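Dear U.,

For the methods section draft, I wanted the exact inputs and outputs in one place so we can describe them consistently. I've listed the two proteins in the order they'll appear in the manuscript figures. Please don't edit the token lines directly; just add comments below if something needs changing.

First protein:
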Amino acid sequence: VTTGLKGKRYEQLATMTARERRDVLLAETGVRCLAQLLEKKYAFNFHLNLVIALVPMADSQFPSIREQACASFESVFKSDKSCACSYEIVQQISSYVKQKQHRVQPFIIRTLLVMPLEVTMEQGEAARKKAKSDRKKRRRQQADGDSIAAGLKEAEAVVDRAEREKTQADILHELVLIYFRILKQATYSQALPAVLEGLAKYSFLINLDIMIDLLKVLKVVLREEDVLPLPAALQAVLTGLRALQGPGGQELMIDDKEFVDILYRLLHRFAEGEAAADLTCFPTLLQCVEAVFLRRKEIVVERVASFVKRLLLVAQHLPPHQALAILSLLRALFHRYSKLQQLLESDVDRVASGEYRADIDDPDFANPFSSACWELALLTHHVHPKLASYALGTAQMAPTLPNEHARALMDAFDPYAGATFALKPKVPVPPSNPLHKKIASENNKNDRKKSRQRRARQFFVRDPLANLDEQYRKQNASSFFQKCLELDEQQTDDKLLVFKK
């Protein structure tokens, strides 16, 4: 397999010779055999050899090879009850990432998200001690000759809970080690969004000391938010928010204002169209806003109002299905924070100090209550019928139905789902104006009058041989008419005529 792929890249597939293509196909077949063997028999003696061979394949440039290797790892993660083989896979991935100096693709890191971890680091320490005492107890029984109890324990064929929790704690330790290495030493890596996604998922399992280090590293990474790709920046914000809202983060008593301000600044990049290239950016944005304002109660209502104004600004530049998701999110905010209903009133009748500053990147000083949600009025005239009606319902404080949460609306009206590339539902034909018929009848009368005049002019003033071809005109026309044609074809001379005396 390695020999067939050596020195070859996926971009060169079109220019490869027939022999090189056969080598690639043979390598794909070999990877398929290794992957299926690992999926079916991950507990046999030589499974470690399969893992060592498949880990580099999970980082291959060829999608067909990479997908098969990653799928086999994910299958093992889901079906391995004892987590022993899963731990060996994570160890090999960790050593491979370190060997490649963290220059790996995000796919091999994203396979680790399938790991069903349930044990925190504190529980892992307790399970490690219990597993150690159980091993001593079994060793003592074997030394005392009590082989019956040991045999019965082995015949039960049940996974030892303490051993499983200990292995899961070791897996969590390896995962955190992989993530922190890339965060601290390789922020340039293209696997950074996948690393931050993994930290956001497993942040509730890590202990308090690692949580403090994680928040420090995230703040260092987010200092370069303008240079950082938008998916990585959003994942970093989401990771920080989930870490602070987890069981360990609540004990730290740290304000999440720094992450909220960064999220407020990142919204401008959505309006500039930067998120169109990556489809994962917008769902991450929805998760960030929900984590900040819906999963907990925000004390500073001005901050929520600033986000409402900026989200409406972003919705003007998004496709209809994403704008619907934002409006669903805003409905939930309007119902959760009753003071936000002032934004749905006219700003002329409201007493407020100062003016709304949309150019300020601090939501606490934008003064949003000096304005109103005029952007919502623009969305009521949108070409998409569902978006227009939903915007009108949002302005009227209509309740949100259970099937109208943000993600459900986005999936239901996605024009790119199923490769239809059509608005869902279709845009209806606007009703005809009564004046249109009158204008059309007047135009028909004028057209009939002009056609009669044109026919009369063609009948009375016309060339009798106009419908005949040029050769027929020259041969069958009269001599006088041919002489006239010759005079017409002669080129005019710019010189003045000179008359002889």
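Second protein (the one for the lower panel):
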Amino acid sequence: MSDVKGKSTSDGVGKLTDKQKRFVEEYLVDLNATQAAIRAGYSEKTAMEQGYQLLHKTSVQKAIEEAQNKRLERIQISQDEVIRRLLENADIASGKKAIVLTQIRKSEDGEIVGDDVAQFVYEPSSVNKALELLGKHLGMFTNKVDVTTDGKPLPTLINVTFSDEPA
């Protein structure tokens, strides 16, 4: 491991510079490579290209995957859980499923009992918004267009025109 700023350090996923590690952390915030590159300290002018290049580095990809897996273990929510809760909210909103508020208390003999105290109307839009944001954070709802040919990136073409006329 190196303590020289910007130098590579070994972390089990290959060697990443401190700036690349910062990119990985920032990328997990919103899954936006350009903004992550800017927040990690790359130039705003080159951030889009830097983000693209970083996402194509195997060591960075592995670091992102490891960090996402660690977070999933920490928060203990999966894509299946998000979908299950969205479906549950859809059932509630459409009236297929009722919400009953139950008050739980201990009886005199120490037994836990629950009394249904009310049914109420539930507005799932705020819950759905939170679940949508969580789903986006888990990479479930991405609006990406794959611009490749047979899995390979499109070639970059540069046209250069020469003229005999003086400038």
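Candidate sentences for the figure legend, describing the second protein: Strands lie at 8-10, 15-17, 100-106, 112-119, 148-149, 152-153. Residues 77-143 form one domain.

Thanks,
Y.
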